[in-house]
Amino acid sequence: MKTGRVRDAGRAVGRVVIRRIAADVPPHLDRYLLASEMVVVAVRRHPAQVLEPVLSAVAALFLVLWATSSLSPDVELVPDVLWVSWLLVLGRALWRLWEWSRDWFIATDTRLLLTYGILTRKVAMMPLGKVTDMSYNRSPLGRLLGYGEFVLESAGQEQAMRVVSWLPDPDDLYRLICAEIFGSDRGRRVGPDVVVQDAASERDPDDDQDRNATVDIYED
Fold this sequence. Notes:
The chain contains five helices and twelve strands.
């Protein structure tokens, strides 16, 4: 970690943390984040989002195996049609899995982002300052499997991101994001790349993996 001191005769009052990219954010998401942002949450959608296409492909496989084994040997075209149909179902499941692996929900100390799409990459964004209310819904299946849906309310007329579904651990995510939107600030921003943070709340330097540069501040 790159560290330096700004000293003027006096006592230390805090620590300046130049936030860059959090260590747990996948590298391909760096392009969407500012150097001054502190990442609070970066998660994929819940795997339950792809449960239906995967189960459909597995069920279709057993159905085709049963049908082809029951057909008369004199029937030649029908098995080929069945296997081609199953390949289409399998291709749909693989495509949905690929989409799921590329979808990310990111919350920083300044905004919320949702990245999605494969052929056409899209990024929906909402500044935290415009979020007036946030709630989440959990269906019975969502409570069983552990996912939920966030509903964001904004002061603006048009919202690029209003409903974010299939989020894992919604209880924890809800508390974390609400703390950023409605709670006390983690630190006081003194510049485009600098946040003053109390020394008592300093993170373990080993967790940052050279992602942050810190400077101690002194006053008379």
